[in-house]
Amino acid sequence: MKKLLLSFLLLLGVVTLAACGGDEAVDPAQGVTDTTVTVGNTVATSGNLAFVGVPFRTAMEAYFDMVNDAGGVNGRTIEYIQYDDEFNAANGLTLTQSLVEDDEVFALVGHFGTPTVSATLEYLNGVGIPRVYYATGISELFAPNAADGELASFPVQPIYDAEGEVMVARAVGDLSASKIGVIYSNDDAGLGLFNGIELRADALNVDLESVQIDPTSDDLSSAAQTMLDFDPDVILVASNQVPAATAVRALNLAGSDIPIITSYVNADATWLSGVQEVLPNFDVYASAWINIFAEDGVSFSEDYNEFATVISGYDEAYAANSFAFAGWIAAATFVAGLERVGEDVLTWDNYIAAMEESLVELPFGVVLDYSSGSRVGTQAMAFLKGEVADELASFATVDPIRTIDEILD
Fold it and tell me: Which of 37, 47, 135, 337 sits at a 20 to 30 Å CA gap from 346?
């Protein structure tokens, strides 16, 4: 903390001199030298969520290595520091503080997981350090009119509240549902998704029945039976990977044949393979916020071909891994802002201003608007369906990326 306070005092002195003298030079931010810029994050690379964290981290490394091999950005290579927080909030807070105060990183890139993001939000808003891409969609990140420390926050993937609305829109617009059941977890992810679900269901006058679950429970038979008693047209499973898989298996054991829609965080072959036994009995759908295909919808895009070529040098299995896609986009988002700063002195203020100046266009068709303090992530999503071919489970796109209005039109 002493280092951080010292850097603040030094920065305050520079700003004061610039205001008084007019021509005095502005010093670069912490983590910046003439030849390097250092970023970092904490990612769960061990424990139950390692299957998410490892490909995410690997893809970030791959992207930064690709940029560095090409000479870096504006003469600087990117140094990346990563710690394993084991998906634990207390660990995440401690390690994040270490990154900011001891390692003195310029920015946090790919700030990972609901526990760590929730635990560090107040601290990081107070510091004002840039945070580029969150590997979560908690409601607290949704800031249409960001101010103060929130301006340094740059969410990319969908916020849970917005996705909850999309899930209802897909149930109504794609699956013709008029009665919707919801199983949602009593945590940030489930509660955020349920907020959006309730909002859109009310707007569409949809009959809604819900049951809240403990995300750590291994027995969700009661929740499954509640859904079957309600007999909805579609069941929305509003939770992250582990509780979502438990809920889907419980529905299968209860004899359900009702289609389900789950969150984009579960839209990966790894997660789907864990519930593969249910696919003969009912359809499993998920949202997605990226597109790896070209305009013809069949051949892969140039963005994907570049990603697949690079990531295959690290692990060929990650060429079809959605968590690796996310890590790649996280790194690309940071680099986009870095490129915009150009030859100017690299400071937190300059970086924030550069990200706000115009639309940020990212790989896989993602476009973001951070102008006028907008910090809401992307709000357009595709619709995927689980399939099994040659005994391997995967998701296939059944409808491309659309806004809610387009889905319901």
Answer: 135
Count of residues for the chain? 409
Residue-wise pLDDT for 158-204, tens only, equals: 999 989 999 999 999 999 999 999 999 999 899 999 999 999 999 99
Tens-digit pLDDT profile for residues 126-139? 999 999 999 998 98
User: How many degrees, rounded to 5, is the angle at CA 83 between CA 243 and CA 265?
Assistant: 30
Q: Do domains 2-158+303-373 and 161-288+381-408 have the same CATH topology?
A: yes
Tokens matching residue 147: 């101010």
- Taking CA atoms, 156 is separated from 79, 97, 134, 167, 263, in Å, by 22, 23, 7, 18, 16
- Residue 29: what residue type? A
- What DSSP designation does 357 have? S
Can you spell out the DSSP letters for 176-213? --SEEEEEEESSHHHHHHHHHHHHHHHHTT-EEEEEEE
Mark out the alpha helices in 174-301 (DSSP H runs).
188-203, 221-230, 241-253, 269-273
**pLDDT higher for 26 or 359?**
359
Quick: pLDDT tens for 24-81. Answer: 568 999 999 999 999 999 999 999 999 999 999 999 999 999 999 999 999 999 999 9
- The CATH label, of 3.30.420.40, 3.40.50.2300, 3.65.10.10, 3.20.20.70, for the domain at 161-288+381-408 is 3.40.50.2300
Strand bridging mode 131-135 / 107-112: parallel
What is the model's pLDDT at position 379?
A: 81
Q: Which of 98, 100, 107 lies closest to 7, judged by CA?
A: 100
Is it true that domain 2-158+303-373 has CATH number 3.40.50.2300?
yes
Tell me the one-letter amino acid at 238.
Answer: A
**Dist. CA 149–CA 409, nearest whole Å:** 38
Q: What is the pLDDT of residue 24?
A: 58
- Ordered by start, the domain boundaries in the chain are 2-158+303-373, 161-288+381-408
